[in-house]
Amino acid sequence: MNDPRPEPLPVLRAVDHGTAKLMPDVDRDRAWLLTIDGAPQSYVDLDDPAHLEFEYARRLAHAVDCAAPGGEPLDVVHLGGGALTLPRRLAVTRSGSRQDVVEADRGLVALVAEHLPLPPGSGITVHGADARAWLEAAPARSADIVVADVFGGSRVPAHLTSLAYARAAERVLRPGGTYVANLADGAPFAFLRSQLATFAAVFAHLALIAEPAVLRGRRFGNAVLVASRGEIDTARLARLAAADAFPARVEHGESLARFTGDARPVRDEDAVPSPEPPGGTFGIG
Q1: pLDDT by residue (tens digit) across 125-170?
Q2: How far apart are CA 22 and CA 20, in angstroms?
Q3: Residue 121 belongs to some domain of the structure
Q4: Could you tell me which residues belong to the region Disordered (predicted)?
Q5: What is the pTM of this model?
Q6: C-alpha span between 110 and 125 (Å, rounded)
Q7: Residue 179 near residue 148, CB atoms below 8 Å
Q8: I need a surface site. Which of 160, 206, 211, 271 has the fewest CB within 10 A?
Q9: Burial of 8 (0-12, 13-18, 19+ CB in 10 A)
Q10: Environment class of residue 6 by beta-carbon count within 10 Å: exposed (0-12), middle (13-18) or buried (19+)?
Q11: Domain count, the chain
Q12: CB neighbours of 112 closer than 8 A, spacing ≥ 6?
């Protein structure tokens, strides 16, 4: 018997910060890829919200999973929304969690709400606001986790890289809370090292998750920063990262201090966006 459902069609729309495109995955029913100006932003499977297609998203999830016992509900702030991939996953893997998603692009918020709506009772609240401004106004000690995945195109905005921003994130976290950020850089890693120095000035414990080829400077790529006032379960984090389809390494302690070198914390007046990726790094054509 033929399936009466029509084939899903791509959706193209101008949003506040570029041109958004939703493309259906021909291999998975009700799964969608979101791009902004050709750069992949999110992948969502509405039938399987726990599925994470992108490796960096898996690493963000590993960091969250290592921050609290499995299944335990959490209060989570997500800076950067996209198609709400990680919030959707946490809503099903940690039922009862309260999640605030902060996305500056209100046009994108509307697009996702229209075409990829959240299920009732998800516990996810979406705010159309600037990430740092929202963070600075949020109640102190109100979150267990802050996840930052904010890109203007393919670059982390400058105002989300400074010492003042790191302090704002720390203020919102409860004692023992964890900050997790998706960053991108390549050799000689001036940006990534500056971020490590900045967050080391605020948090007692740091870890970095990245593929060995990225850490060796062989290519530009994503790196996930994990920062906490409490201990980070780096052993478990390393096991999870190594078991992925594209294995990653976890740097911490002395090796991470050596990687950071003599980098200095970033002040607001000196902050710059993350570097522009080489052509074709994240684009899909």
Answers
A1: 999 999 999 999 999 999 999 999 999 878 999 999 999 999 999 9
A2: 7
A3: yes
A4: 263-285
A5: 0.94
A6: 13
A7: yes
A8: 271
A9: middle
A10: exposed
A11: 1
A12: 34, 81, 82, 83, 84
- State how far the Cα of 246 lies from the Cα of 283, in Å rounded to an integer: 19
Domain presence at residue 242: yes
Residue 159: DSSP 8-state: G
**Of 100, 99, 96, 90, residue with least CA distance to 63:** 90
Contact (CB, 8 A) for 171 and 139: no
pLDDT higher than 80, residue 7: no
Residue type, 133: A
CATH code at position 223: 3.40.50.150
* DSSP H or E run through 170: helix 163-172
Q: Whole-angstrom Cα distance, residue 243 to residue 276?
A: 30
Give the pair of three-digit tokens for residue 78: 């997500």
Angle at 195 (CA atoms; ends 278, 213), nearest 5 degrees: 45
Q: Which residues touch 37 (CB under 8 Å, ≥6 apart)?
A: 18, 19, 153
Residue with tokens 């109100």: 142
**Are the beta carbons of 105 and 121 closer than 8 angstroms?**
no
- 148 lies in which domain range? 52-270
Place of tokens 């003599």: 262
Is position 18 within any domain? no
* The two three-digit tokens of residue 214, written as one number: 């990225």
* 80 contacts 130 by C-beta, under 8 angstroms: no
pLDDT, tens digit, 9 for 90 and up, residues 24-70 = 999 999 999 999 998 899 999 999 999 999 999 999 999 999 999 98
219, 112, 202: which is closest to 162 by C-alpha?
202
Domain-embedded: residue 81: yes
Q: Which candidate, 152, 95, 140, 153, places its Cα nearest to that of 121?
A: 95
Which residue carries 């401004």 as its tokens?
A: 133
What is the edge-to-edge ordering of all strands in the sheet holding 11-15?
11-15, 18-24, 31-36, 39-45
